[in-house]
Amino acid sequence: MDALLIGLLGCLLGEMGDKGQWLLLALSTRFQRTGALIAGIAFAAAANAALGAVAGGFLAPMLGSDARLLFLALALLFLAGGMAWPVKRPDPLANWRIGPFLTAALGLFILGFGDGAQFLILGVAARTADPVLAATGGAIGMFAAWLPVILLREQLFRVLPLRAIRLAGALLFLLGAMGAAISALHLT
Predict the structure, then answer these.
(1) Number of domains in the chain
(2) Do the Cβ atoms of 19 and 90 come closer than 8 Å?
(3) In principle, which of 47, 79, 137, 164 could form an S-S bond with 8, CB 3.0–4.6 Å?
Protein backbone atom coordinates (compact mmCIF):
# COMPACT_ATOMS: atom_id res chain seq x y z
CA MET A 1 0.00 0.00 0.00
CA ASP A 2 2.96 2.34 0.60
CA ALA A 3 4.00 2.02 -3.04
CA LEU A 4 0.54 3.01 -4.24
CA LEU A 5 0.23 6.06 -2.00
CA ILE A 6 3.77 7.35 -2.46
CA GLY A 7 3.52 6.90 -6.22
CA LEU A 8 0.11 8.58 -6.39
CA LEU A 9 0.85 11.57 -4.19
CA GLY A 10 4.40 12.02 -5.44
CA CYS A 11 3.45 11.99 -9.11
CA LEU A 12 0.40 14.19 -8.53
CA LEU A 13 2.49 16.83 -6.79
CA GLY A 14 5.47 16.38 -9.09
CA GLU A 15 3.39 17.02 -12.20
CA MET A 16 1.75 20.21 -10.93
CA GLY A 17 2.87 23.08 -13.16
CA ASP A 18 5.32 20.82 -14.98
CA LYS A 19 5.93 20.53 -18.73
CA GLY A 20 3.18 17.94 -19.19
CA GLN A 21 0.51 20.33 -17.98
CA TRP A 22 1.78 23.11 -20.25
CA LEU A 23 1.79 20.76 -23.23
CA LEU A 24 -1.76 19.70 -22.42
CA LEU A 25 -2.86 23.32 -22.24
CA ALA A 26 -1.62 23.83 -25.81
CA LEU A 27 -3.19 20.58 -27.00
CA SER A 28 -6.55 21.20 -25.33
CA THR A 29 -6.69 24.63 -26.94
CA ARG A 30 -5.78 23.19 -30.35
CA PHE A 31 -8.00 20.11 -30.24
CA GLN A 32 -11.59 20.36 -29.07
CA ARG A 33 -11.95 16.58 -28.73
CA THR A 34 -11.78 16.18 -24.98
CA GLY A 35 -12.44 12.43 -24.99
CA ALA A 36 -9.53 11.68 -27.31
CA LEU A 37 -7.19 13.83 -25.21
CA ILE A 38 -8.29 12.09 -22.01
CA ALA A 39 -7.66 8.70 -23.62
CA GLY A 40 -4.24 9.92 -24.75
CA ILE A 41 -3.22 11.09 -21.27
CA ALA A 42 -4.42 7.80 -19.77
CA PHE A 43 -2.24 5.90 -22.23
CA ALA A 44 0.80 8.13 -21.63
CA ALA A 45 0.43 7.94 -17.84
CA ALA A 46 0.11 4.15 -17.91
CA ALA A 47 3.05 3.72 -20.30
CA ASN A 48 5.38 6.03 -18.37
CA ALA A 49 4.43 4.48 -15.04
CA ALA A 50 4.84 0.94 -16.39
CA LEU A 51 8.26 1.72 -17.79
CA GLY A 52 9.45 3.15 -14.48
CA ALA A 53 7.99 0.25 -12.51
CA VAL A 54 9.53 -2.39 -14.77
CA ALA A 55 12.94 -0.76 -14.37
CA GLY A 56 12.45 -0.59 -10.58
CA GLY A 57 11.33 -4.20 -10.44
CA PHE A 58 14.41 -5.18 -12.43
CA LEU A 59 16.78 -3.28 -10.11
CA ALA A 60 15.20 -4.29 -6.79
CA PRO A 61 16.66 -7.83 -6.53
CA MET A 62 20.16 -6.54 -7.30
CA LEU A 63 20.18 -4.03 -4.43
CA GLY A 64 20.26 -4.49 -0.69
CA SER A 65 17.69 -2.85 1.57
CA ASP A 66 19.80 0.21 2.33
CA ALA A 67 20.77 0.66 -1.32
CA ARG A 68 17.09 0.55 -2.36
CA LEU A 69 16.27 3.21 0.24
CA LEU A 70 19.20 5.32 -0.94
CA PHE A 71 17.98 4.95 -4.53
CA LEU A 72 14.55 6.23 -3.44
CA ALA A 73 16.28 9.17 -1.72
CA LEU A 74 18.06 9.94 -4.98
CA ALA A 75 14.77 9.82 -6.89
CA LEU A 76 13.18 12.20 -4.37
CA LEU A 77 16.18 14.51 -4.61
CA PHE A 78 15.96 14.64 -8.41
CA LEU A 79 12.23 15.33 -8.23
CA ALA A 80 12.86 18.12 -5.70
CA GLY A 81 15.45 19.67 -7.98
CA GLY A 82 13.13 19.47 -10.97
CA MET A 83 10.33 21.15 -9.06
CA ALA A 84 12.56 23.97 -7.82
CA TRP A 85 13.87 24.66 -11.32
CA PRO A 86 11.77 27.05 -13.45
CA VAL A 87 9.67 25.24 -16.05
CA LYS A 88 10.30 26.00 -19.69
CA ARG A 89 7.18 25.53 -21.79
CA PRO A 90 7.59 22.62 -24.20
CA ASP A 91 7.06 22.66 -27.95
CA PRO A 92 3.26 22.63 -28.53
CA LEU A 93 3.66 19.97 -31.25
CA ALA A 94 1.83 22.17 -33.78
CA ASN A 95 3.46 20.32 -36.70
CA TRP A 96 2.21 16.92 -35.53
CA ARG A 97 -0.76 15.90 -37.71
CA ILE A 98 -1.66 12.59 -36.10
CA GLY A 99 -4.81 13.58 -34.21
CA PRO A 100 -5.51 14.40 -30.58
CA PHE A 101 -5.16 10.90 -29.12
CA LEU A 102 -1.78 10.07 -30.63
CA THR A 103 -0.44 13.60 -30.21
CA ALA A 104 -1.31 13.60 -26.51
CA ALA A 105 -0.20 10.00 -25.91
CA LEU A 106 3.11 10.17 -27.76
CA GLY A 107 3.88 13.77 -26.80
CA LEU A 108 3.39 13.16 -23.08
CA PHE A 109 5.17 9.81 -23.20
CA ILE A 110 8.22 11.35 -24.86
CA LEU A 111 8.11 14.38 -22.57
CA GLY A 112 7.84 12.19 -19.48
CA PHE A 113 10.59 9.77 -20.51
CA GLY A 114 13.20 10.03 -17.77
CA ASP A 115 11.24 12.77 -16.00
CA GLY A 116 11.06 13.14 -12.22
CA ALA A 117 7.72 11.34 -11.89
CA GLN A 118 8.96 8.33 -13.84
CA PHE A 119 12.16 8.23 -11.79
CA LEU A 120 10.09 8.44 -8.60
CA ILE A 121 8.05 5.42 -9.71
CA LEU A 122 11.30 3.59 -10.43
CA GLY A 123 12.59 4.44 -6.95
CA VAL A 124 9.35 3.44 -5.22
CA ALA A 125 9.17 0.17 -7.16
CA ALA A 126 12.77 -0.65 -6.28
CA ARG A 127 12.32 0.25 -2.60
CA THR A 128 9.03 -1.50 -1.96
CA ALA A 129 9.57 -4.41 -4.37
CA ASP A 130 5.97 -3.89 -5.50
CA PRO A 131 6.18 -2.50 -9.03
CA VAL A 132 2.49 -3.06 -9.83
CA LEU A 133 1.29 -0.82 -7.01
CA ALA A 134 4.01 1.76 -7.72
CA ALA A 135 2.95 1.91 -11.38
CA THR A 136 -0.74 2.06 -10.49
CA GLY A 137 -0.26 4.88 -8.00
CA GLY A 138 2.06 6.79 -10.32
CA ALA A 139 -0.28 6.50 -13.29
CA ILE A 140 -3.25 7.65 -11.22
CA GLY A 141 -1.21 10.57 -9.88
CA MET A 142 -0.08 11.70 -13.34
CA PHE A 143 -3.59 11.32 -14.74
CA ALA A 144 -5.06 13.29 -11.83
CA ALA A 145 -2.58 16.12 -12.42
CA TRP A 146 -3.19 16.23 -16.18
CA LEU A 147 -6.98 15.82 -16.35
CA PRO A 148 -7.91 19.24 -14.87
CA VAL A 149 -5.84 20.96 -17.57
CA ILE A 150 -8.01 19.42 -20.28
CA LEU A 151 -11.24 20.18 -18.45
CA LEU A 152 -10.43 23.68 -17.13
CA ARG A 153 -7.73 24.88 -19.56
CA GLU A 154 -6.35 28.35 -18.70
CA GLN A 155 -8.61 28.68 -15.64
CA LEU A 156 -6.52 26.11 -13.79
CA PHE A 157 -3.35 28.14 -14.29
CA ARG A 158 -5.07 31.35 -13.18
CA VAL A 159 -6.55 29.81 -10.01
CA LEU A 160 -3.67 27.72 -8.69
CA PRO A 161 -0.48 29.33 -7.37
CA LEU A 162 1.67 26.89 -9.33
CA ARG A 163 5.03 28.43 -8.45
CA ALA A 164 4.23 28.24 -4.73
CA ILE A 165 2.98 24.66 -5.13
CA ARG A 166 6.17 23.69 -6.97
CA LEU A 167 8.45 25.30 -4.36
CA ALA A 168 6.53 23.72 -1.47
CA GLY A 169 6.65 20.36 -3.27
CA ALA A 170 10.38 20.75 -3.83
CA LEU A 171 10.86 21.38 -0.13
CA LEU A 172 8.75 18.32 0.80
CA PHE A 173 10.63 16.08 -1.60
CA LEU A 174 13.96 17.44 -0.38
CA LEU A 175 13.01 16.69 3.24
CA GLY A 176 11.86 13.20 2.22
CA ALA A 177 15.12 12.61 0.36
CA MET A 178 17.15 13.74 3.36
CA GLY A 179 15.16 11.51 5.71
CA ALA A 180 15.51 8.49 3.45
CA ALA A 181 19.24 9.09 2.96
CA ILE A 182 19.85 9.51 6.70
CA SER A 183 17.99 6.29 7.37
CA ALA A 184 19.76 4.39 4.58
CA LEU A 185 23.18 5.55 5.76
CA HIS A 186 22.33 4.81 9.43
CA LEU A 187 23.20 8.34 10.53
CA THR A 188 20.50 8.50 13.20
Answers:
(1) 1
(2) yes
(3) 137
